[in-house]
Write a structure and sequence with these properties.
The chain is an alpha/beta fold. It contains 26 helices and 17 strands. A nine-stranded mixed sheet has the order 3-4-5-2-1-6-7-10-11, sandwiched between helices. Strand 13, helix 20 and strand 14 form a beta-alpha-beta unit. The chain is elongated, with a radius of gyration of 39 Å. It binds adenosine-5'-diphosphate. Adenosine-5'-diphosphate binds next to helix 10, strand 12, strand 13 and helix 21. Keywords: Amyloplast, Chloroplast, Coiled coil, Glycosyltransferase, Plastid, Starch biosynthesis, Transferase, Transit peptide. Pathway: Glycan biosynthesis; starch biosynthesis. One of its GO terms (molecular function) is alpha-1,4-glucan glucosyltransferase (UDP-glucose donor) activity. This is Starch synthase, chloroplastic/amyloplastic.
């Protein structure tokens, strides 16, 4: 895929080069038109001269009359002749004037031509923009994204056609100028026939010369314009040909690519196709299950049937698939994640990274993985491939009524994803933001219910339903209290709490909205919160799930005491099913040697790119670049109390005091905190060593990870934390507080109780300024005084394996055990 993208990229660059030549030609055409303008101005001057001549002639006529009065007969006769000649000359001048009016009319046509040219210019600019956009889209294109590519190409073709039409029109107007030559000829002939005095002859001769030179220059200009138009037309034809070739080659390449070894994207598409047919009742649930399993095992017969299906009607494809639908067995699991976030399509924080990272790792291990998400209006639609709505409406219960839901499918990062769009008047996911709405409890209880309804109606044989955080914690009680009673009970429920700070509490009766039985559940051993009379959804998920996990072993320990935010006793009761598994990072997304957001890609063995990115970020943020080795400290975070906001604030001043540079990227949902950091940003706006960027910006986050030398995570508590791992992968040494997942992934460089090969950063325990200072100062010391040791540390950090591989295996183990128990129970 990399190669095919590279070759497409080269071809597109060649094409843009062609366009540049084409634009050059238009510039020449423009210059020709400017010359034509000049000629017209000269014509105006000429007209003025004629006017003067006319005035002079009339004066001469008046003088003649006066003179005649005191003359002899012979003299009078001579004056009479002269007078007659003057009359003739007057006539000639009138004729000349008429001709000039003609020229003026031509001038108007020329203005029209000028207008046409301006139109042509703007079409060209539009075309070039569309082409550049198409080019950048091409780079993002995977071989499966031909639909979007075709659309772009069609737009380009339309633009080309309209440009060609305009060129043709301009050529027609230019042809009209040939008539001008005839007019000038006639003018010449009539001038020749005129009998005038020598003085007048001299003037007329002068005029003739002028007219001739105008005519010659006009002709030259005309010729030049014609040849430029021809060249442009030729370029358009050439461009068309190359574009068609390019499209054909791209199609061929993508087909070849599929045939070599289909990417996950391909199989995800097949599996969504099968699910769509099953939901739309075009195939039976049993056939769908068999076909789904074949797709999951990447059965070549399905691949061949699909590849040879181009141009076939859907029914024929279904029939050719059904012929192969023979039952088999699979060793992998069918896992469905129900979540409120997924990177990069709907990301607020680490949860999004986990859904795509863990999902991809589980898929790579041979499991069938699917994701169900709300269809948010604000999600990054451009990150979804082949997004389409199914021809089915899923009815789901809420507050005593049934509501329709549209079901969309698409692939994200090669994973099959269902997007649920409720047709509920509450417009639950049309809020321009993911969370923070007054009715979040309602919105997500609604979503959890539809997600389960979708699985139930699809008739899939799911092994594991994995829900995440309070937003989808409703799934666990709904599954066992509602759907198991309907016979949908083969799956096992896994619940992961990514942060016990957020538990989803509400008055007990709110639970009834999604169809849960408040009386049954509002009990201390079920869903009633441990410290107040409200309902607690995270507690419900702990009680009702078969597996409960959190995101690091240290955090799993911490939440068994006060870190559990009131749920410690519940966790102790259910400790047998509770485990901490550290998150990984998506090493495809976070890879400095392929990261498209970086100015220069780099690796542990070639660190040049790291300093180039540092220089680029400094330039981009208008920071001082006087000292290349001045250390740059980075911090990317949500600005919430959990993240140690007071220590982040302190770190800004401390870094300045130590002579370093500091870049913060973060925003806060808490207005006071946001305001406070805006104040600090203002305070430092003229300081070229400190930058506070109070926003969410994915592209910039990549640049900061790459550019920074050190990265701070001074959290009060941190369930897992991803930024310290991403920072290390980008060669930025972490300075962190020893808590939760930070304690499981960062080991102090000076701690001799830890094996040297594991030591990878600087840590502190006490959540105060002294604690933080001691760690940051040590990091600065190594950086300045032992650059070689520092470089080795950077290289070591970059080589640590933070991939999902190991953690996904742990999830797979616990899923397998739960699924085996489920099978044993039936
Ligand atoms: P949490 O999930 O508690 O927010 P994590 O460290 O687990 O923290 O994950 C945070 C993720 O969000 C990381 O991928 C980080 O790069 C990203 N992130 C946080 N804030 C921003 C921001 N302002 N702009 C871009 N990415 C951000």
């Amino acid at each position: 895929m990399m190669n095919s993208n590279r070759s497409l990229e080269m071809k597109m660059a060649y094409q843009i080069f062609n366009w540049k030549i084409w634009l050059e030609r238009y510039k020449t055409l423009r210059r020709a038109l400017e010359r034509a303008d000049k000629i017209l101005k000269e014509k105006e001057a000429l007209q003025q001269e004629i006017n003067i001549l006319e005035i002079k002639l009339s004066e001469t006529g008046a003088q003649s009359e006066l003179s005649t009065k005191g003359m002899s007969d012979a003299e009078a006769l001579e004056f009479d002749v002269l007078k007659e000649e003057n009359m003739l000359l007057k006539d000639d001048i009138t004729f000349l004037k008429a001709k000039l009016i003609d020229i003026t009319e031509k001038e108007e046509s020329l203005f029209k031509l000028e207008k046409e040219r301006a139109l042509l210019d703007s079409s060209l600019r539009e075309l070039e923009c569309a082409f550049i956009a198409a080019h950048s889209d091409m780079l993002k294109l995977g071989p499966m994204q031909h639909d979007a590519w075709w659309e772009k190409v069609e737009n380009l073709e339309e633009l080309l056609e309209s440009t060609a039409n305009q060129v043709e029109h301009a050529a027609l107007i230019l042809d009209g100028y040939h008539a001008f030559q005839d007019k000038v000829d006639k003018l010449e002939a009539s001038l020749g026939a005129t009998n005038i005095s020598e003085f007048c002859l001299y003037l007329v001769d002068l005029l003739k010369k002028r007219v001739k030179s105008i005519e010659e220059r006009f002709q030259a200009c005309n010729r030049e314009m014609h040849s430029q138009i021809e060249l442009c037309e030729h370029s358009i034809v050439e461009f068309h040909d190359t574009l068609s070739k390019l499209i054909k080659e791209s199609e061929k390449k993508s087909m070849e690519h599929y045939q070599e070894g289909m990417p996950s994207e391909f199989w995800s598409r097949i599996s969504l196709l099968i699910d769509g047919w099953s939901l739309e009742k075009k195939i039976s649930n049993d056939d769908a299950n068999i076909l789904r399993e074949m797709a999951w095992k990447r059965d070549n017969r399905l691949r061949e049937a699909y590849l040879s299906s181009r141009g076939m009607a859907e029914r024929e494809l279904i029939d050719s698939f059904l012929k192969m639908a023979l039952p088999g067995t699979s060793s992998g699991l069918h896992i469905v994640h129900i979540a409120a976030e997924m990177a990069p399509v709907a990301k607020v924080g680490g949860l999004a990274d986990v859904i795509s990272g863990l999902g991809k790792a589980l898929q790579k291990k041979g499991n069938l993985v699917e994701i169900i998400l709300p269809k948010y209006d604000c999600m990054q639609h451009n990150q979804i491939n082949n997004l389409k709505v199914l021809d089915v409406v899923v009815q789901s219960y809420f507050e005593g009524n049934m509501f329709a839901n549209k079901i969309w499918t698409g692939t994200v990062e090669g994973l099959p994803v269902y997007f649920i769009e409720p047709q509920h008047p509450g417009k639950f996911f049309w809020r321009a933001q993911y969370y923070g709405e007054h009715d979040d409890f309602k919105r997500f209880s609604y979503f959890s219910r539809v997600a389960l309804e979708l699985l139930y109606q699809s008739g899939k044989k799911v092994d594991i339903i994995h829900c995440h955080d309070w937003q989808t914690a409703f799934v666990a009680p709904l599954y066992w209290d509602v759907y198991a009673n309907l016979g949908f009970s083969l799956a096992r429920i896994c619940f992961t709490c990514h942060n016990f700070e957020y538990q989803g509490t509400a008055p007990a009766q709110d639970l009834a909205c999604c169809g849960l039985d408040v009386e049954r559940l509002d009990r201390p051993d079920r869903m009633r919160d441990n410290s107040h009379g409200r309902i607690n959804v995270v507690k419900g998920a702990i009680v009702y799930s078969n597996i409960v996990t959190t995101v690091s072993p240290t955090y799993a320990q911490e939440v068994r005491s006060e870190g559990g935010r009131g749920l410690q006793d519940t966790l102790k009761i259910h400790s047998k099913k509770f485990v901490g598994i550290i998150n990984g990072i998506d090493t495809d997304t976070w890879n400095p040697s392929t990261d498209r957001f970086l100015k220069v890609q780099y690796s542990a063995n070639d660190l040049y790119g790291k300093s180039a990115n540092k220089a680029a970020l400094r330039k981009q943020l208008k920071m001082s670049s006087a000292n290349a080795s001045q250390p740059l400290v980075g911090c990317i975070t949500r600005l919430v109390p959990q993240k140690g906001v007071h220590l982040i604030r302190h770190a800004i001043y401390k870094t300045a005091e130590l002579g370093g540079q500091f870049v913060l990227l973060g925003s806060s949902p808490v207005p006071n905190i946001q305001r406070e950091f805006e104040g600090i940003a203002d305070q430092f706006q003229n300081n070229s060593n400190i930058r506070l960027l109070l926003k969410y910006d994915d592209a910039l986050s990549h640049m900061i990870f790459a550019a920074s030398d050190m990265f701070i995570v001074p959290s009060m508590f941190e369930p897992c934390g991803l930024t310290q791992m991403i920072a290390m992968r980008y060669g930025s040494v972490p300075v962190v507080r020893r808590t939760g997942g930070l304690n499981d992934s960062v080991f102090d460089f000076d701690d001799e109780t830890i094996p040297m090969e594991l030591r990878n950063g600087f840590t502190f325990l006490k959540a105060d300024e002294q604690g933080f200072d001691s760690a940051l100062e040590r990091a600065f010391n190594y950086y300045h005084r032992k650059p070689e040791v520092w470089k080795q540390l950077v290289q070591k950090d970059m080589k640590i394996d933070f991939s999902w591989d190991t953690s996904a295996s742990q999830y797979e183990d616990i899923y397998q055990r739960a699924a085996a128990q489920a099978r044993a129970a039936t």
